[in-house]
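User: Could you check the structure of this?
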Amino acid sequence: MVSDEGVTRARPTLSWHEPRIRQALAGLVVIAAIGFAIDALPPDVADVAGSVFVFLAFGAAGVLMIRRAGRLEGRDRLAWRIIGTGVTLAAVGVAVFAVVWAFVPDLPAFGPVDVIFLSAYVTMVVGFASLPQVHAQKSQRLRLLLDALVGGTALGTLLWALVVGPLIGRMPQVGTFETAVGMAYPILDLVLLVTATVVVVRRSALRFDPRLVLVALALAIQAASDLRFLTHALGSSFQEVQPPYGLLGMAAGLAFATATILEYRPPHREYADRRPSLIPMVIPYLITGVLVVVLIDTLAESGVGRTGFQLLIGFLLTVALVIARQAVAIRENREIVEAQRRALVSSVSHELRTPLAAVVGFLGLLADDSAASLADEERHELIALANEHARHMARIVEDLILLARGDLRELELHEQVVDAAELVATAVNSLDAPGVSFVDETGGWAVRGDPDRLRQVVTNLVSNAVRYGGPTRLVVFRREADTAFLEVHDDGPGVPRRHEATIWERFERGAHRFNAAVPGSGIGLAIVEAIAVAHGGEAGYRRSERLGGACFSVSLPGRALPPPAEPTGTETAITVGG
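Assistant: Sure, the predicted C-alpha cells are below.
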C-alpha cells in the first residue's frame, strides 16, 4: 500500500453531482432486483437467465470501472484499474463456465473453470493492496496487518470448523481437486475482506471514501454468496444446485454503483491526528474471544475430536499472531522512546548551549582583572544579562523536572492576585522577543493564580510564536464573566490541521518534528496544558481571527477578579519587549 502523498493531483478533484449519485443508486436497485427475480424463476430457466445476467452485470461493472479509473491519477488510477480487471475477469469466468456447461451438462459445481474466478479474486486483492494510504512507518503498517490477520484467522477457523469442516465430513466421495477448489473460495474471500478492511479503516485523508465502502459491501455480500453456494454445491453438479442470484445481483449492483461514482474522488482533506480508534483494534480480539469460547465449549462437550482439533490449531495460530503483534508493538514503542530521548537530549543541549555560553562569557568578563575599568552601568548590565540567561536555563531545567515527575497535571500552586500587564511584561522582557504587543481587554480586571506558573505559560507561548509564527505577535488578556483568557496570536502559517491534537503531547513538535534547523524540545505546550489544568482551566488552539496565524489560549474559569473601583476604560494596549 502506498502513501496518499504518492497520488498525483494534476487534475482538480471533481465535485459530487446528484445525477451521478442517482444513477449509482438506480443501477444498484435495478441489478439487485433482477437477481432476486431470477431466484424466483424455475431452476432450468433461472440457470440460463442467471448465467447471462451475472455475465452482463459483472462485465458492465468491470468495464465501467476500468474506463472511469482512466480519469483518476497516479496509483489511485492503477489500483482501481486492477480491481476493475478482477471484476471483469469474474464475468469472463461466467461466460467460459456457461460455454463448457453447454457441452458438459454434468459439469461439477467446482472444477478447472474455477481457476478463472480464483484468479479474479487474487487480482482484486492486488488492486486493494495497491490503493493509496496515509504515510506511516513500516512497523505501524505491520501492526495493523497483524491485527487484521488475528481477526481473519479467528473468523476463518470458526467458519472452517463449524461450517466447512462438517460439510466435508459428510461428503467423503468428493475428489481432492474439487475439494481444494471449493475450499479456496472462503480462504480468498477472507483474504480479500481482510485486505479491504485494512484499506477502509486506515488512517488516511481519504478514510471515509464512499467508493471503498460500496466495494467493501460488495465483497462481503460476494463472500456470503460463496459460502452459501459452497455449503449446497460441494460434491454436486452445477445443474443440481442453483447459485444465489439475488446475492450475486446485490454484489454486482454495488460494484456497478462503485464504478458509477469512481471518478469522483473525495477531496484530499486534512484532519487532526488522534490516537488510533479502539474499534478497529478491539474487533479482531473480540472474534478471538468468540473462538476461545467455542473451543472451550467444544472440548468440554466432546473432547478433542476433529472439530476440537481444528479449533485448537486455529487458536494456536491466533496466539502466535498475537505474540508477533505484541513484539512489533514493543519494538515500535522502544523506537519511539529512543527517538524521544535523542530528540530531548539534542534539543535541550541546543537550547542550553547559547545561554550557558553567554553566562560563562559575562562572568568571565566580570572576573577578569580588566573588569575593574568597567563602569558601574556596564557592570550592572553584564550582571543583568547573565541573570537573564541564567533564568532562561532555570526555566528549561524546571520543565525537565516537571517531566521527570511523570504526571504533569499534579502541580503545586502558590496562588495570589496577579496583575496581567505586569505578568506579561515580566515574561516577555525575559525573552529575546522584540515587538510583542499586549492588549488588556478586561477593563482592569486581575487574575488569581500562581504567578510563576502563569508567567511560564506566557513565556512558553510567546517563545512558541517566535519560533514557529510570523514576525507579529500579540498577547491578549480578556475575560468572559469571571473566566480569564490568556491568548497569544501570531501571523505565521498556523498549525496544520493534522497536528492540532498532537501538539499538546510531550516531545511533539507537529510539522517541525524532523526539522533540526528550528530549535525546540516539544515540551513547552505540554507544560502550558498542565498548568492550565492545574488552575481548573484548559489550553486550546485555533486560527487567529486577529492576525490570521496561530492563536494559543489558556482559559481560567472563575479566576478573573474585578478591580477595587469601577474601571474608567475598556481597553489598554502597550508594547513590551523592545
